[in-house]
């Protein structure tokens, strides 16, 4: 998934899922609050992402390791299953079910940006996203060439 799509959160805390992304996912996605925004995955993509966090050379997920178990449990507990409705909308309000106020704390009200980031998409508060992009543009050469 790639691209940037400005959206508005409606009165029922929904956004229209960008049509290019709808072609890449089924009718169900997983939303995960992470790093000041919300990551969105297919169910399979979410499982791969979580598993990939534990892959490091010969090291894999160890259910007897307290840190591994805590991280996996926390990620799975914070993930929210959301259906894409017949009008192509996703309900960001479902983020508040387990933790009331989560959506507002992330700034996912009013104008938001839906961006593609390879194997997943992200939903950002529009102002936070613009600041992130300004920082990226300032650092682009250093990120590309290690300057």
Q: For this structure, what is the CATH homologous superfamily?
A: Transcriptional regulator MraZ domain
- CATH topology annotation: Chemotaxis protein chec
Number of helices: 5
The CATH architecture category equals: 3-Layer(aba) Sandwich
Global Rg: 16 Å
pLDDT averaged over residues: 88
What helical percentage do the residues reach?
25-40%
Task: Give me a quick take on this structure.
It contains five helices and eight strands.
Q: What do you see in this structure?
A:
This protein is of the alpha+beta class and 147 residues long. The protein has a single domain, classed as Transcriptional regulator MraZ domain (Chemotaxis protein chec, 3-Layer(aba) Sandwich). It is built from five helices and eight strands. The strands form two sheets. It has a six-stranded antiparallel β-sheet. The protein has a two-stranded antiparallel ribbon with strand order 2-6. A hairpin with a 2-residue loop joins strand 3 and strand 4. The longest helix has 20 residues. It is globular and about 45 Å long. The two termini are 28 Å apart.
